[in-house]
Structure formats: C-alpha cells, structure tokens
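Writing this down once: the sequence line spells out the residues, with the fold written below as integer tokens. This is how one looks:
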Amino acid sequence: MKEKLLLYQKKYGKTARKEARAVHIDGVANSEIEIRRRTDLLMSCYNCWNSLSAWRKELRRNEEFVYGDQFSDFVFDFLNRRYISERNLLVEQGLQPSQYNIIRNVFRTIVGVWSSNKTLPTCIAQKDENQIESEVLTATLHALYRKNELWKLDLAQLTLLLISGTAITKNTFAARNGDRDVKNDFISPFSFFVDNTMEDPRYTDCSLVGYFYDLSISDIVGLFSGGSKARSQQIRGLYGKLRDMQPDERIHEMSETFTDERLERDFFVPGVESYGLCRVIEVWRKESAECYWIHDYLHGRYYPDFTVSESDLKQENDRRIAEQGEMGVSRENMLLLDYQWSTDSYWKYYFMTPFGEILEEGVNPYWHEKPPIMFEFYEFFCGKIYPFVKDLISTQKQINQLSAISALLVKHSAKSILFMPRKLVKEEDEDALQRKLTNYDAVVLHEGKAGDPEPKYVNTVAEAFTPLNVVNMYLKLSETVSGVYGALQGQQPTAGTPAQMYAQQSVNSATSLNGIFEAINSFRVRRDKMNVQLMQQFYEEKKYIYDKDSGKRLVYDPEKVKNIDVEIAITENVNTPAYRLMVNDLLIQLKQFDSSNMIDLRGLLEAGSFPFKDKLLDYINKREQQMADVATSGEQESELPGGLPPELAQELSQYEFTPEIAQELETVGGSPD
C-alpha cells in the first residue's frame, strides 16, 4: 500500500506538478545551460526598489528621531537665504541644543508590554484524529523558536515595524555550520524591494518580491556552480577583478557602521562597508504558462497539466471509451477526461548578478507554493506605508524647539543687572557696557530720573521659563497621539487621580495598541505556518522533541505529520511565574474539595508546575517499580526501603501542604517534614 501511495504522489502529487512545470518552462537543468542575461527582470527589480526611495528617506528620518539627532531636519534660513540643519542654525546663534527623547520611551513601553506576555504559536489540526500529531508539531515549532532565537528576532521586528512600518524575514531550509534545519533570516529594509502596485492589505496581489545581499566570490561559486568547475569559472568571470579574491584576503574598510551615521545603499554596487564582496540579487516573481486544465472523472481530480498535448488527451479518452465499453458502461455514464486549454500561475525564483546574468533560476520548490520572503506593513493604506512613529515626530520637535528657545532666552536675557545713575559713579565706555549686559550680576550705568537716584535691580530670567510651561502641554499631547499614557508606563499618578481613572487609562492604552500587536502577530502566524510546512517537507527522519510545557520527550515521525493540515493560533504563554502560581493554588483548592480522591498525587504533580515536580515524579516512578518487583518476587513489603531522599525531603519541607497531600506523601515515602 505504501509503495502505491508513493507511486501516486510521484505521478500526481505537487512534486510531480512542479517537476512538470520545470521541464516545460526551463527545458534543462540549470547546471547544463549557458549563463544568460535578463536585463528586463533586472530593471523591474530596480524600479521596484527605486520606487521605495521616498519611504527609505522617511525611514532614515524616523530612525534619527528615535536614536539619533533630533535637530537634523533642514530648514530655510530667511536671513541668509539658504537651507541649513536646525542644529547648525542654533549653533550659529550661540547655543548647543539639548534633546529630550520621548519617542524612545514610548517605544520601550510598547515593546515591554508586548514582550511581557510571551505568546506562543500553537498548531491546530483541521481534523480531530490529527490532534496528537498537531501537538508534536507544536512542540517542534517551540523547539525551533528556542534554536533560532525567534523571540529576540521578533522583538527586533516589532521595533522595525514601529520605525519603518515593515517587518521582513526569509524562511528557508539550509545547511549552515554543520546544521541542516529551518532558518529564519532577517532582511534589511534598505535592501528589500517589492511589487509597487500592491494595494491589498493581505498582499494577495503581490507579483514580485526580493532583496539583495553581498557575499564573497567563493561563497557565490559554491552556491551556484552546481558542482561544475567550468561553470564556477564562468561565474568568477562575471565579477571582474574580484574573481580571484579569497574570503581571508578581504580587508575591511574604515566605515562607521555601528554608529548613527548610516551609509546609504546602492542597488547595483556594494557599499563601502562591503568592499571586496560581490552582490547577488534574489527575486521571486509570479509567472504563468500554458496548460490544460483537466477534470478527471475517473480519479476525481481537477489539475493543470503543462506537458500533455491535446492529441494525448484524445487518445486517453479513446482508450477509456473502449475499456469501459467492454464493461458494458453506456456512453453517457463513462468516466472520461474533460479538459480545457488555459494558463496557470506559479512562483519562480532567480538569482542574478548586478548586470542581469542569471546565476540560478527555477520553479518554486516548496510545497506551500509561496515565496519564502515574508513581510508585513503597518499601516498599509491603498499602497502607501504610514509608520507609527510618524505621528510622534511633530510633537517631539515642538518639545525640543521650546527647550532650545528657553535656553536662548536664558542666555540672551538680562540677569540681575543693576541700573546705577551715572552721576553716582564715574563714566564707563560703551564697549564695557555691552560686555556686561548679559553677564550675571552686571552693573549698568544710566542717567537716572529726577527723584529716582536709587539703584534698581532688573531680573528677566523668570520670563525665559515661560515656554517650558508649554512643554508640559506637548508632553500630554504626545500621550494622546501615541495612545501610550503614563498609566501604561507605570508612572506615579498625580495627587487626586481616582484609581478607577488610572486603571481605565491603562486599559485604553493597551486597546489603542491592538493594531500594532495584531500586525506583528499576523506576521508571526504566516511565518510560523511556513516554518511548519518547511518542517513537514524537509524533516525526513524521526527525532525526539523536548516539550517544555509537559516536560516529556515526543517523537517526531515524518510519515505521520507530513500531510497534516494545521492552522497557527497565537496563545497566551503559560510559562510565567504568575500563571504557575495561579495553577498551583487552584490545584491545591481542588484537592481540598476532592472527597472521593479523584485527583491523586501523580495527577496533581503532572498538572501543576511545582519546582520539585521532576524529582518527586522520578522518585514515585522508582517507588512504584520497586513495589512491582516485590509483588513479582513475593517478598514482604516491609522489606522495602522507606523514606524520601534527604535532598528531596529537605526541599519539600519548605512548602506547606494540605492534610490530604501530606498524607499521600507519607504513603509514598515518608513525611515531607
């Protein structure tokens, strides 16, 4: 039966369809064809990347206001008729402006709220009989989270989503550092390009997506030569003077890459920080080919066939008519082929040089029939991206500008100047008077009025702090714009604030951020489902998977989970101290009301999350095995060694148990005291 199923899959399965497409479209294998050039595809990729130039400039500005110089915007200087940065303009006025970053604090709050509850993906099978296999897939996916550090990657993706409005990753199965497994790669938004005609917020109308990256010539030859030395020489010749450079011969250029000075990327040429490397452009494009859509009434299938001809289909129908006619089937009841010429779309991948030469191409090899590059836009409205941070920049600028104005007023205002009638002191020249005008505790001579010869103090410093009162207004405005109130940040409420209002502000803040959290969770759902599909396709051997929730080792059997259709649901993570404490308390309370002893000690331990859980379960298993051996050999039960191990008894003595649980512990091996 198994051989028949494998033969059926080879002939009619998805793999067979992809192989048929590849033969029909490519004709021969990549390693056997000459390197050809696709300048049309290269220009399509460049146009899509170039259409995002305004978005990348906005991304760079957003990054400045979160991490860098918040006075970097250029403004028009009307006095000198020129454009100059805000910082340089203030410096020319004699001020070194300070900056107060409220956007960073908002980001920390949002990331902290989302990461405080580490939700985890759960695989849910479409059929009830596949629930056990779905639990195995869930445990395997959680193991992949730990192995690939996906929580760290997701935190970075959330920050990127807030600043740029995008989260991008590539899911693939690859061998790296001696490990073959599913990999999730981060993709920089500065090297990413996508179909610039998309408008669907679900991205179903995407027809082109890709990115570029820089590798050494040795890595490129190893990836795309296909084991052919002749082809490797061809590929080396495509990259000119870098064709003979080895990875250990590369000299890193002096460039500030880990600072706030970002070097802008170019589509065709590697940047200064990538000197000595060669550029590879990876693109996935949706294409179509002619085919016959066939409805096979005999086998109950409807599928496209890219290799069959109309004469072959007619010949098959004639064979079936003759065969079924001999069986006595009437013509109107015969199960024949119903076919129609049409086209079918599919995804195809290309790896290109910056000059358009094709290093490798082929039909999508993945079962999910989607490009492996996953992306999420927030907020995406009618083909435009509107990042979250964009709403906060104006408020941030106003706060810093008012602070700078206050500093200017303090510097250029009169400070405790003493006006002294000239007739009371000697004359002083005008230059000295100007030097003392803005000095602290300066004395200025003047012609006093009749009847008012006394010295008079003038202090205008207090007037310079008037704009600071407006700053408080903008701080409140930033909370309204972002939706992140002080209650969500854990700030101390002001005197007289009702507790109910403070709690409601916290709830309102969390509600206003639901859109951001839904966007990152949608990205995770699509990425994790693709990870599961990659595991189903490429995991070919049985392996043991540690389930952290149950503490058990599960067996991943490819034959059982390969064809399971699952959906991904993001669920609350139960692996938190508060949740464990709540579960333990609930179990203890249930045990108190369990008069019929339906919940025994083993069930209590397996359902709970006690620190001594594994040690005590291991001891109970050994104890039960000893009792079974005694029963088999006929020895007396009194000969069994009694009492818990000293280290376990000491650990249990730190906890208070109900009388029922304490009695069961005594029955097992002694009192916890």
User: Anything to note?
Assistant: DSSP finds 24 helices and 20 strands in the chain. The radius of gyration is 36 Å. Confidence is low (pLDDT under 50) at residues 1-32.
